[in-house]
TrEMBL record:
It comes from Selaginella moellendorffii (Spikemoss). Residues 79-101 have a biased composition (Basic and acidic residues). This is Casein kinase substrate phosphoprotein PP28 domain-containing protein. Residues 69-146 form the Casein kinase substrate phosphoprotein PP28 domain. Residues 1-101 are annotated as: Disordered. Coiled coil: none annotated.
């Protein structure tokens, strides 16, 4: 058949005899975990015998070059009992900017109510002109009624 996939490795199977299984001397360990435990026990015995304990063996150049990843975020586990409620929490940049924006808007509205901003002055001038036009229009209507 085509392709690189090969079927089951049927030629590589090793079967244990019932006697080996009963004695516990089969060539292949029953589970991978048990094999790991055996290796760890042998490594621990080697570490205990040596004066300098080896830290975990690293693959490739990791054992040679020891560099911490600055981008790796280290999780800080803060517990509820350790939190100090009396300390004010520091706001993030976005939160601070949002608060400043709200305060500036409130300040602007307050000044506008007092009529101290340019937009408020223009609005008041426009309102005064409209009132004057309405008064003039009302006078004209009254003159026309009086004239009839």
């Amino acid at each position: 058949g085509r392709g690189k996939f090969k079927g089951k490795p049927t030629g590589k199977r090793n079967f244990s005899t019932p006697e080996e299984m009963a004695a516990g001397t089969s060539a292949k360990p029953r589970t991978f975990r048990r094999e790991e435990e055996v290796e760890e026990e042998s490594e621990e015995s080697e570490v205990e015998s040596e004066e300098e304990p080896e830290v975990f063996k690293k693959k490739g150049t990791q054992g040679v070059i020891e560099v911490e990843n600055p981008n790796l975020a280290k999780a800080k586990g803060t517990k509820a009992k350790d939190v100090d409620v009396s300390e004010p929490t520091e706001l993030s940049r976005r939160e601070r900017e949002e608060l400043e924006k709200q305060r500036a808007h409130e300040r602007y509205l307050k000044l506008q109510e007092q009529g101290k901003t340019e937009q408020a002055r223009k609005d008041l001038e426009r309102l005064a002109m409209i009132r004057q036009q309405r008064v003039e229009a009302a006078k004209k209507r009254e003159e026309e009624k009086a004239g009839k």
